[in-house]
Amino acid sequence: MRLSDLCLAWALCATPVAAGDLTIVSWGGAYEAAQRQAIIDPFEAETGLEIDVTVYDGSWAALAERGPAEGWDLIDMLADQARVACARGLLLRLDPGALFSSEALADFTPVQPDRCSVPQNAYARVMAFDDRAFAGIKPTRIEDFFDTARFPGPRAIQRSPDGILEWALLAEGVPPEQVYGLLSTDRGLRLAFRKLDTIRDDIVWWDDPAEPAEMLRDGRAVMAAGFNGRFFDVAQNGRVPIDIVWDGRIIGIEVWAIAAATDALDAARDFIIHATEAASMARFAARIPYGPTRRSAFDRIGLNPDTGVPMRAYLPNAPQHGGRALVQDSSWYANTEEQRQRRFHAWLDAAE
Amino acid sequence: MATDPNTDTVPLLWRVLVLTGIALVVGSAASLAAVALVELVTLLNTGLLVAPKARVQWESLPWLVAMTTILVPTLGGLIVGLVHRHLSPVGRPLGPPDVIEAVQFHKPLPGLRSGLISTGTAALSLGAGASVGQYGPMVYLGAIFGGFARHLRLGVPNLASIAIGCGVAAAISTAFNAPIAGVLFAHEVVLRHYATRAFAPVTVASVTGYVFANVIFERTALFRIEAPGIAHGYEFALVAALGILVAAGAIVFMRLLLAVGPSLARWVKRPELRTALAGLAVGLTALALPDVLGIGTSTLRFATIDGAFGPGEVVVLIIAKIVLTALCIGAGFSGGAFSPALLIGSLIGVFFWTVASGVAAVPTSGAAIYAISGMMGFASAVIGAPLTCILIVFELTRNYDVTIAAMVAVVFSNLVSHRAFGRSLFDVQLARRGIDFSLGRDHAHLAALRVVDYLQSDALTATADDAPEEVADRLLGQGWREAFVLDRDGRLLGVFTPGPHDDVDRVGSGIVPARLVFHDTTDLAEAMERLRGFVGDAVPVVSETDGKFLGAVTEADLVAAWLDEAARLRREENASV
């Protein structure tokens, strides 16, 4: 007993040697850079703690494999992955009521902190098009994505059932609140794939999220399904005439979660509180077009400090966007992954 | 009647305040309760794996989904049956007919305990996936809150009926996000008049329900339709034909629904086994056809999408849904017929569209128009509320063309079903309880009054052996011209009139049969009809069971009762505030 206690104490003392005070796991690239400037650096300055940032592929499996060995404390995750990780005991249970006041909890949108995670930003799957391809009337609705008569040309779509099935039903006139309910039925999936059939010959598939914007730039596609941040980046920094259609945007949520094996619980909790303040969210959203998950943060978002672009117009969950919006149902996503993949690949195979 | 409830005894301003207050309180309470009921059902549907969205998430365990599909409705039925049998004083689910009866005859609703149990079993029935609707229970729930006004002594005539109308309107308004339809439903189906005294508070309650649903809870409508307009003029003729088709379907549905209950009761004696069996039937059918489970919100949506169903598939689904709904309601599940009617009607509309556009190759504006027209045509035949159904379409689609198409289907459907079946399922159910609205509200009210309540206590009786002179003297003393001659057991033998029979030695040889005899079951409406051409003092009333003489009613008393009732109705129907 004594010996094991000693070992544990030694292990606890030894871990920080391998890293800084706090190890944050995130996505790298422009995203991580924005996170550093908006959230991590101010936190370090405020607390004097030293923070290491590690990059991972976003899956809960990576957390299970690498997390304990590398001393991960805080993980930036997709909401559905966090749900799975939480169910598997990889994440620490949080008490949102202890972290936030009831006013702060009510300020969160579109979802509130749950037992393992705190929402930090919102991204969206959106439809974008090459402005040069449509000289006259531009696409404005999800229906236009499936209308190859009015808007001919190749469409770039992820080789995955994610997002495109929702769009297929939206294009059939299903209201957003019923989309996941209908996709849960065999008939709903049949109808979605029937809609996909109508553009089957015009689809170019992508696997890497960077591709759709490149495809629009190179003229390999005239319309594309992809993530709003990527389209924004290519359009702004690459000076490519890409426009985003906000109708039918599928909003996904990024969350902060604490690894169950953390050795810096207090610092991790302090970081989450700091990172999910309205001011932090606003600083982040001013640098990269991922929207805040608190209502009060929208009022603070102004120009991008580097480019001077007014960022509010590019945030997926900005209140001024019209059209239909769907909030990705993360538990449904987590629990239907296998079935959707199976049906999707059956449909792909039927084509070939 | 000790006090006339129509008499205005309190100042105008007070009446206005009372009516507004009642409308706001009852409207808010009914609306919140309707929201709670919907939420509870959604929760149960998710937890019990009835909702497709819940079922698909357990798809990796197919045996679990199959087990719950069979067991949940069966056990749900067993519990509903047991609860009704052992805990509910009335022993059955309550619904719109009970509300109509209470409002029309100013009677209290069946007890609060029965009402709450009926609401609870409705939540369980709907939650467990039985093929029943939620609007019937919602109407009743709204009425419960209105019914509390009965205990208030605020001096406003007919307050309880108006308050019940408020509750009903708020519940419908909340459920459909359709405040205008809520107002019309309360008047068309429940109150059956449009007095300002009722119309104003009912409107306030309905709008309160709308505010709760839309502004405070930001709930989306249970069924949102975005339909295109009508592309071709001839489609109105198609929709009229569809109206007649859905009327036929509705008549089959209602007849089956009314027939299943009694015949099932003959076959299965224990009520809880009847509901369990109906649940089992739903579960087994759902293994192959999951669309039949519950209120079928997803199926209703699919109906508006072109080609979501194959023609064979839609026919099977229509038949399954008609049979299972009739079975579930007939067996005693707690729930209404309106939601299933919406679903069956829209499927018939889809079938019609498939045949018209697919087989006959007629260009049309798409399945949605026919699904909506069929849905409302069918539903209006069932609930007997054409205006409400037209307004629901208008409020859900906000589309003028679609509303006009649906209106055509609704009137043609009502034309046929009213003629061949009756005004509505509710009215036919009430008629089976002896309350007949088929000739209008006033007739039903007159028919609810019994002549036996207007007996003259001093009607003169005699026996066959009495001396004519003695009877004539007694008649003269009381101012009557006729005596009712009874046998030893008190049964009526006939009428004796002194004068032309001076030659007879005993009354028995001078009696003539009574020209008109009423029974203790004879109602005022029937009596007034039969009094046509009657001349005489009074009409004898005898017991229908044993023929015993009960007394006599004078024509003047009956006419006075008729005038009183007609005046009461007129005041109720024309009351300002």
Provide a descriptive summary of the structure in words.
- The complex is a heterodimer of chains A (352) and B (577).
- With 352 residues, chain A is α/β, with parallel strands linked by helices.
- Chain A has 2 domains: 22-122 and 253-314, Periplasmic binding protein-like II (D-Maltodextrin-Binding Protein, domain 2), CATH 3.40.190; 123-251 and 323-350, Periplasmic binding protein-like II (D-Maltodextrin-Binding Protein, domain 2).
- Chain A is 46% helix and 18% strand.
- Chain A is built from 16 helices and 10 strands.
- In chain A, strands 1, 2, 3, 4, 5, 6, 7, 8, 9 and 10 form a 10-stranded mixed beta sheet that branches.
- The termini of chain A are far apart.
- Chain B is mainly alpha-helical and 577 residues long.
- Chain B has 3 domains: 12-216, Clc chloride channel (Orthogonal Bundle), CATH 1.10.3080.10; 235-436, Clc chloride channel (Orthogonal Bundle), CATH 1.10.3080; 445-566, CBS-domain, CATH 3.10.580.
- Chain B is 62% helix and 4% strand.
- Chain B has 22 helices and 6 strands.
- Chain B has helices spanning 12-47, 52-56, 62-86, 96-104, 112-127, 135-147, 159-176, 179-191, 196-216, 235-267, 271-288, 297-302, 311-331, 338-359, 367-383, 386-397, 400-420, 425-432, 441-448, 468-478, 524-530, 555-574, and strands spanning 461-463, 483-486, 492-496, 518-519, 538-542, 549-554.
- In chain B, the strands form 2 sheets. A 3-stranded mixed beta sheet of chain B has the order 1-2-3, with no helix packed on it. In chain B, strands 4-5-6 form a 3-stranded mixed beta sheet.
- In chain B, a hairpin with a 6-residue loop joins strand 5 and strand 6 (549-554).
- In chain B, helix 10 crosses helix 14, helix 13 runs antiparallel to helix 14 (338-359) and helix 15 (367-383) packs antiparallel against helix 16 (386-397).
- The longest helix of chain B is centred in the first third of the chain and has 36 residues, at 12-47.
- Chain B is elongated and about 100 Å long.
- The model of chain B is unreliable at 1-6 (pLDDT under 50).
- The interface between A and B is medium-sized, with 21 and 24 residues.
